[in-house]
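Researcher: Last one for today. Full complex below.
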Amino acid sequence: MTSRPVPTTHSRPLPAGLTREQLLEIYRYLRLTRTLEERLTALYRQSKVIGGLFRSLGQEGESVASAYALERGPHRDILSPLIRNLGSMLVMGAQPLEILRQYMAKAGSPTRGRELNVHFNDLERGFLGQISHLGDMIPVMAGITLTFKLRGESRVGLVYIGDGGTSTGTFHEGLNFAAVQRCPLVVIAEYNRWAYSTPPEKQFAVKDLAEKAKGYGISAGTVDGNDVLAVYEATKAAVARARGGGGVQFIEVKTYRRKGHAEHDDQHYVPQEELDWWAKQNDPVDRYVKQLLQHEWTEERDLTEIDERVRVEIDQATDACVNEPLPQPETTLPGVYASPPAAERLWFRSL
Amino acid sequence: MTEVTYLEALRQGLWEEMERDDRVFILGEDIGLYGGAFKVTEGFTKRFGEQRVIDTPISEAAIVGAAAGAAHMGLRPVAEMQFIDFISCAYDMLTNYVATARYRAGLATPLVVRGPCGGYVRGGPFHSQNPEAAFFHTPGLKIVYPATARDAKGLIKAAIRDDDPVLYLEHKWLYRRVKEQLPEGEEIVTPIGEARLAREGKDLSIVTYGATLWKSLEAAEQLEQEDGVAAEVLDLRTLLPLDDAAIVRSVKKTNKVLIVHEDTRTGGVAGEITARINEQAFEWLDGPIMRVTAHDVPLPYAPTLEDFVLPQTEDIVKAARWLAAY
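Model: Here's the assembly. Have a good evening.
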């Protein structure tokens, strides 16, 4: 974007050690996440999305801000996102085109139609897609960060876990393992109030997820997950401690899942006034914009300019892939193993 | 040549691979200074240090998950299950995460999970299991099961060098019972996916692996002496992928097949072998394909009970006689 002189006369000092360009870049990722998901919703309604659609509406702030605290670039930090961490993947360099192709199961998608939605990876760019078994990425990220430690590399891993995911066995085993090994791993625990339809009081008997971490000897804190700058600062500090040899860091972010588990879920179990309150009073993007403008860190037209560019980017990405073909059936056979190169074609398919 | 036990051969193979390739490291419960429950890794910490010999919490899922993460990053982890019975605690990690990683995501996951299997040792229901059938059904995994000292060494080396995840099943009844002269200074690597003809014969084929190889060889000897029946014995060595060619070759030669495994019957590997022979060599058969397996019960503790449940040499002899006369 064109850089303008920083307005200095009335504005407050810039927050969290961020430059004005960085503040706007964070805004761009927030907007990109939301706009991309809105586009996916439209494609879902047109039956262009093959499977389910999982929105992160209301959680974009903590996804983007936590990822933004990492070192990005080839072979730097690695994060493992969940289904509602699209924003974190975009920060690490995943492209809207890749996400669109994944959701629409295109032959040219990163997994060539084998896997869904945000379940894909690029370890060089620094993201390792999840599998659907919640908690499993904690031990895997423990192994990745153990490797950083064994090799003496100054790299950090970050892994997300939902409030429901903290009930799994692999969460416990992985966190304990990583704590014992003092792996350079930051855990972002997302308290978003709903695990599918299950509320926290049916999921665990602690008040805050941070209490769980203390049981593993891990220092933990809770932050307002819809305060973008607070999440950024907390993660930045945690990443620095992990990078400096401080072992596992645990941050609970309090946020709210404003859509159903997936697009098919009508959320009848959620009080409407609760949804309205989070939408009107505690939207992370609105709050961030308000901060940017109130403190005169930026001007309205900078934001609308970004909005427009994001809209064009998503339009172009959609146009580029919406009519692409699905994968050819026989491409399903190769790549189960390094060797043998392909699974055997069954005899009756050759009759 | 030096005489080495199955356990020592395994230990040597692991040691040599760690000497050869500094990407190889091992992790598991009590494997460090204690040297492992069966002493497979005795002396490893002293030689390779705590960075490459990692004592872990009692967390099989975390052990396998962490091994997977390290494997993605280019290391070559070898994870020990203290007893293979506990691999079921890592079933999710192995079948959902590890086995699918290459296919769904193009992620290389070259790891080995190894551990002591099997009965005949009065271990009871949770220290005697053979878990191969639970994983045999999972595309993306390989399974090897050595029966000899040479293959204990050759298969651990091949498993570590393989670019796919490998379950290495070692039989604790064979650890110190089986000994073999192995050449010093010669590299022993057993190719994954190749069966070995353990004894030649013309009258029927006994297809087996693991501890029941030795019981099958005993049975074949007895059949030769007492009945003049020449039984061929095929040691599968790798269960996944199966060496169909070697099995079919033997079927075409003897026209009768007895499959022997220590694992329980229903859903066991023998059923799959039967189906493959049916598909690939039906017209070569002169009799039904028969199975000698454990009874379909959890493995009991008392010697009288365990001996009844597990396949014994005399069971193989009886079944082979029945089939030879068919």
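Residues 20-324 of chain A form a domain with the Rossmann fold fold (CATH 3.40.50.970). Residues 20-45 of chain A form the longest helix (26 residues).
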